[in-house]
Request: fold
Amino acid sequence: MSISTPSEPKNPSVVKVSGKPAAKPGAKPGTKSGTKAPVSAKGKGGGRKPVTPVKVGGGRNWGPIALFTAVGVIAVGIIGFAAWPSFGPGGTAYSWQTRAGQISGIVNFRDNGTQLIQEHDWAPQKYDQNPPVGGKHNPVWQRCMGDIYDAPIPNEHAVHSLEHGAVWLTYRSDLNPDEVNTLKGKIKGKQFTLMSPVEGLDHKVSLQAWGYQLKLDDVNDSRIDDFISVLAKNATLEPEASCSGGNTATGTTPLTEQQAQQRLGGNQ
Amino acid sequence: MSDNRRFTLFSTAGLGIMLGLGLVLGLVLGLVVAPAFRGSTPADDSPEAGFARDMSAHHAQAVAMGMIAQQRGTNIAVRVIGGDIALTQQGQIGMMSQWLRGWGLNVNGTGQAMAWMPGGENALEDGLMPGMATQEEMTKLDQARGPEVDRLFIQMMIKHHLGGIHMVDGILKQSRNEDVVWLANSMKAGQQKEIRDLQSAQKSLPSQ
Reply:
């Protein structure tokens, strides 16, 4: 393929748009070299390759255009493929808050004006949400190292776990054993999670992080895993706070100061 | 005139081809060179990311055990080792979390534990990583009192450390990341030493 396509240097007024007829006159410059070049293929090119007149002012050079386009498409493909895990929906390039907002049905209490007090209080608390998503809580947190509690746990301890970054998976206490086992599989041994039944819950499952809640009715809903993956540890109010230790007892009333002293106190 | 002719070399077609070739060359170079940079920022499914996540979870349980030993152990060696392990490993959890954030990755993985280690799935015991105590065992330690705390803690922590060292070996075989290799080596040396300390403390406990 010839790289040099003749131009029309002598006649600037002739614009080589793509019109074939217009190109013809322009192809005959009256210079000495002009006599050889356009006519062509047979003439000696004076060391240079002769130029084929057919090319002159002809249609677009589809070859290079196609090549260029193909390379461009491949490049975009490669870049896109590499970037997708980060920049695709739910990708890690987004902050956890952004990814949380992408989980359909999630309620963000941090942004809707709800006041969630971080104070400690030994007294039992009343919460505006059920299950609670934040607020005053017991000084002792509920252990949240992928712990599975088979009976209800005191809200006051669970809320403290949320403050430490835990995702608290609650389920309606009348779910069948298969459903409960499915949920257990998502929690067991997983850091910054805990799970417990709640009597009379308005949905089969409700997930809580501090200031976030997602309620759903299918234990196989993939949003359960999304919620855990995006919010566990990330939603903490105290970065690097621990889920180790804390209360492990079930029940509906929080530990009193005396009980905590007995349960968690030093050796004596 | 010859200038005009030369100029034609840079016409649309010429430029197109040169740009095209340049782009292809750049892409090939990029693909060849990219893996060299991957070592410094591990990907989401890299052994380094898997190790950082799993070892954080593994460490968290050691912190829980260490805190119980520190607070409720009766043997002074047990209490000191417990506190030492809890503080050290909690600090290391912070380091590993920050690696992940620095690499632009979520601190939580989405796959199964130990998937980053060849044959890792076989190392799981009932879904738990090597050396991990079950929830029931942790609760038993938590509720123990007196010398029972010392005895249980030593047993559980030796097993826990052995599992941890197994995981450390797994990452040392795979990673060339300086930070990861440095911390992993220190974990291995530190935990091996602590196993010896725990074994000698074990011998000093009153037999029951």
About this structure: Chain A has eight helices and six strands. Residues 19-45 of chain A have pLDDT under 50 and may be disordered.
